[in-house]
Design goal:
InterPro entries: DRMBL, Metallo-B-lactamas, RibonucZ/Hydroxyglut_hydro. Pfam families: DRMBL (PF07522), Lactamase_B_2 (PF12706). Belongs to the DNA repair metallo-beta-lactamase (DRMBL) family. The protein has 450 residues and is α/β, with parallel strands linked by helices. Strand 9, helix 2 and strand 10 form a beta-alpha-beta unit. Helix 1 runs antiparallel to helix 5.
């Protein structure tokens, strides 16, 4: 599995990087969100080093990885926090968390200290409102921008999530007598599910494992584990295969929808791939970099960004970084020696008050029925992992990820025996500069308590 995290040079900081033996000088760890390619190496045995994240991510960290409470330090968004960078209280940094518009709990980190100003986006979907954040609006210089370059391809366009959601709604409206199966990974796109539930006045059936996550997120009450009570059902993306589609269709006419920015093509008339992305498009990244004008740019995924981005950077040199002696000593000391400082001098801890669950316009299902067949544990896989595993029965495959076969300068071993049949994709014209939908907690729903 790829590791989408970084150790910040000349500092004791790391973001989404948990391989401690590779960063012995790191003392402060930051988690941008809970997708598994950003938590590689982070387990329940984590100790001696504080983890800073958003309150929502903290809740998921406890639920999914069972990290001990003493190491988890949730920070509220949009508020600056002072953190110690040594064990004597002399040197501090300021960190501000900014909504990343990616998945529940995802944030960007703005670090300020002796090293200058560093903005680490983590995974994010850019929207112009981000530039109105007070911490960015008042800043004249970002010295280093760590950029989520997942979709940084000038030859590829993506619709806004609002446009992609409309495409999905139109597909469902065209098939009023069909059930709908949506293939998703373990975390993300919850706002899409809530919007579809409200639009079509139906419960969304999920597995017991997914329901645990949804309860932790305190989303509107549109989800159920009761089989057959709702028109929409969520499954793991890997379950969208020809055998299952044939099985579902025999029981009840069924559509399968894959909301993903991965370059998949469908080979079944009832399977629709919709380019719904939680990562910024190339044009959005260009707009973001052009507006911020950072002194330097570091890609989070891989080592390269398009040369056209270099033209967006101002011609100025970054000042030389002088690491204070107390910070050098801190980075060389044993982690145990910092327990009395960083663990006990936590930033202002604030009580997280999640949104209360809300009722919906349709009847509640009868509770206490048998468990759903989807109870099997869902892997914490994410869209950006691009897992290359092929089904044990290749003839059962109905999807192929074109990026594995058409990525330039990539050595591909094996015979590439993937099934290729008739292509059917769902892509409608869209404007690349359309208005971008807000994140999960910025959506507005009309609900009636029941």
């Amino acid at each position: 599995m790829s590791v989408n995290g970084k150790v910040i040079p000349h500092t004791p900081l790391a973001v989404d990087f948990w391989q401690v033996r590779k960063c012995p000088g790191t003392r402060l760890f930051f988690l941008s969100h809970m997708h598994s390619d950003h938590t590689v190496g982070l387990t329940s045995t984590w100790s001696n080093r504080p983890i800073y994240c958003s309150p929502t991510t903290a809740a998921l960290l406890r639920l999914k990885l069972q990290v001990k409470e003493k190491w988890i330090h949730p920070l509220e968004l949009d508020e600056p926090y002072l953190l110690p960078m040594d064990d004597i209280g002399k040197e501090k940094l300021t960190v501000t968390l900014i909504e990343a518009n990616h998945c529940p709990g995802s944030v960007m980190f703005l670090f300020e200290g002796y090293f200058g100003s560093i903005l680490y986006t983590g995974d994010f979907r850019y929207t112009p409102s981000m530039l109105r954040e007070p911490c960015l609006r008042t800043h004249t210089t970002i010295d280093v921008l760590y950029l989520d370059n997942t979709n940084c391809d000038p030859n590829r366009t993506l619709p806004s999530r609002q446009q992609a959601t409309q495409q999905i709604k139109e597909i469902i409206r065209r098939h009023p007598n069909h059930n709908v199966v949506i293939g998703l990974y373990a975390l993300g796109k919850e706002s899409l599910l809530v919007e579809l539930a409200m639009e079509f006045k139906t419960w969304v059936e999920v597995s017991f494992v997914r329901m645990q996550t949804l309860k932790a997120l305190e989303l509107p009450d549109v989800f159920t584990t009761e089989p057959g009570v709702g028109r929409i059902r969520v499954v793991e993306q890997s379950q969208i295969c020809s055998a299952n589609v044939h099985k579902w269709d025999k029981e009840q006419p069924t559509l399968a929808i894959l909301p993903t920015s991965r370059p998949l093509v469908s080979f079944h008339p009832n399977v629709h791939v919709v380019p719904y992305s939680d990562h910024s498009s190339y044009q959005e990244l260009e707009d973001f970099v052009s507006a911020l004008k950072p002194t330097s740019l570091v890609p989070i995924v891989g080592k390269h960004v398009p040369a056209s981005f270099s033209a967006l950077l101002p011609r100025r040199k970054r000042h030389e970084i002088l690491v204070p002696e107390c910070v050098r000593h801190y980075m060389l000391s044993q982690p145990e020696s910092q327990l009395s400082s960083s663990a006990n001098t936590s930033p202002r801890r604030r009580h997280f008050q999640p949104l209360l669950p809300k009722g919906v316009l349709f009847d509640s299902p009868v509770r206490g029925a048998g468990k759903s067949g989807e109870e099997a544990t869902e892997p914490d896989a994410t869209e950006e992992e691009m897992d290359a595993e092929v089904s044990e029965n290749d003839s059962d495959c109905i999807l192929v990820d074109l990026s594995k076969y058409h990525t330039p300068k990539k050595n591909r071993g094996g015979t590439g025996d993937m099934c290729l049949n008739i292509v059917k994709t769902t892509r409608t014209p869209f404007e690349t500069n359309a208005k971008i939908i807000s994140g999960l907690y910025q959506m507005t729903y009309t609900v009636v308590h029941i």
